[in-house]
Each structure stands twice: as structure tokens, then as C-alpha cells.
Amino acid sequence: MNQVTKVFFTHSLKFISFWIAVGGLIFLVGHFIYLFLPFLLAFIMTATISPLRNFLKSKFRFPQSIAVVTAMIVEIGGLGVVIMLLVIRLIQEIRDISINWPHYNDLLQRFFTHWLTKVEIYYLKLPGTSTDTVNNTVKDFINTIPAVLASILSMAAKIPEIIIVIVIALVATFFMSYGSKRYLNDIVNIFPLQWREHIGELGRDFSRGFAGFIRAEFIVFLITLFISIAGLMIIHAKYAIIIGTITGIFGILPVLGVGIVLVPWSILAFISGHSLLSIELILLTTVITVLRHIIEPKILGDNVGLDPLFVLISMYIGLASTGVIGLILGPFILIAYQALHKAGVFRNL
Prior knowledge:
Number of domains: 2
Oligomer: single chain
Order of helices and strands: HHHHHHHHHHHHH
Structural class: mainly alpha
Radius of gyration: 25 Å
Number of strands: 0
Number of helices: 13
Helix content: over 70%
Distance between the termini: 20 Å
């Protein structure tokens, strides 16, 4: 084996070993994330309130502790009130659906039966047994909906546990935001003296990148959630809070976003003869999508430097490997990789 081949295989082995280690770390963190959930929430909240905290310190000369508390009250407290009101309305709508479910169940079954019959007659010419199978599948799917709603309502039993997590996260947020520089210096001082400058720069790049990403996604989520709920209320859609909340959550996903919820709904509305509702839903989808594509690339590109395609890939891999938490964990690893690459860690791999 000549020298060039030997060097190539050595670097390839190092590179593969590095990414295997990263993959193992992602898997472990994703499956044991509940142990660190309060502190992950605290880190996210710290990144969210840091611009207001810095503004209060620089413009109004607030002491560090007062600036942190004020920022927490304004941002986290205000958001908490809005979330509480939305949750109360959400529970009311879920209970209303549960009470009126026999009526909705009958409507859904008649709708699917009507259109399956049309498909059988005009298009597919399905045998009777195949149509029966499809009908039974549709009925089974519809019958699972009440169980899903009941499981959502049963989460109320976990409220004490949720409150404990939130309290710990709030306290940790105060300490993280108040002593962020000291904690960073303590971490840097662990490493040898000749590494400290590079480690400090790496930490600052990573913190800026992750904080920018969190702020970007948080702004996108709030705008999507607000416009979805407000838009559905304006067009007098029933259960606007439930559907708007689901739409806002799916709006976190790049590229696909709110279309996952609103586009199929608009198609069903058109098929059912509600042409006006279908047009209104398409217009709402367009407005949200346009606003998202104006805001998100600006923040992600200018402040974080992440390509939207790579963000989508990282979120999908994170979701597939570790579940919902991977939607955050995937971009987190991508930002870390970007910071390490900028610091020259991979030059010798």
C-alpha cells in the first residue's frame, strides 16, 4: 500500500469513526433527553430572552439580575398567559368534539362511503370485497379518533409533573442567563491553556448559532400559530383553536409546513361542495407560507448561516432517529458541526 492510499484510508477511518461517535451520541441524548428536559427548556428560554436582557442592560442600565427577571416576566410570562388561555380553549373544544362525536362519526362515515362508492363505479371498478376492506379500514381509523382525544384529555393528570418541570426550568433559566459568562469561563478553564482561546471562540460561535436558530423557529412558530388561529376564526371554521394549534406545530417543519394540514382540508372541502371554504383555506396557506419564507431564510441565513435544505435534512434525520425531540436535536448537531468546521477541527480528519 503506497503512502497516498494509506493517508486516504487513515483519514477516511477517522472521519467515519467521528460520525459513528456523533450518531451514537445523538441516539443516547435523544432517548434519555427526559433526564435533561428542564435544563434544555432553560437553555432555549435563555436564548430567547437574551436580546431583551441585553437591550435592558445597554439602554436602560438595568443591573444583570433585574434585566434577567424583567425579560423573563415580559417574554416568558406573557407567552405563558397566552398559552394558558389557548390550552383552556383547546380543552373546551376537545371536550365538545368528544361529546358530539357520534354525530361527527356518522358524517365522516357517510362522506367516505359516498366517495368510495363513486371511486368504485367510475374509476377503479373494485370488487365488493376490496371495497368492504377499504370501508372497514376507514371505520377503524375513524374509531381511533375518540381514543386519541381521550388520551389528550388524560394528560391533565400529568399537570403536577409538568408544573415541576416548568418551575425547575424557570429557576435554571435565571441562573443560566445571570451567570452565562461565568459558566462559559468555567467550562473553558477545564481545557489546557493553549486550547482556551479556540474553545472560547467555538463556544461563542455555537451559542450564537443555536440562539439564532431557536429565535428563528420560535418566531416562525408564533407567527404561524397566531395567523392560523386568527385566520380560521375569521373564516368561522369550527374548532379553530385545535386545528390552528396543530397547524402551528406542523408549521415548524421547513418546506412542508402548514400545507400538511390545510391543503388536504381544502381538498376535502372542495370535494364536499364547500368551494368558498376551500378557497379561504388555500389563501390562508399562501399567506402563512409567504410570510414564513420571508422571515425564516432571513434569520437562518443571516444570523445562523444554515441552508434551509440542510435544516430540513437534519430535522428529518433527528425525527426519524429520536422522535419529536429530534426536530430540535438535528439542527442542534448541524449548528455544532458548523461551529467545529469553522474552528478547523476537521482539517486533520
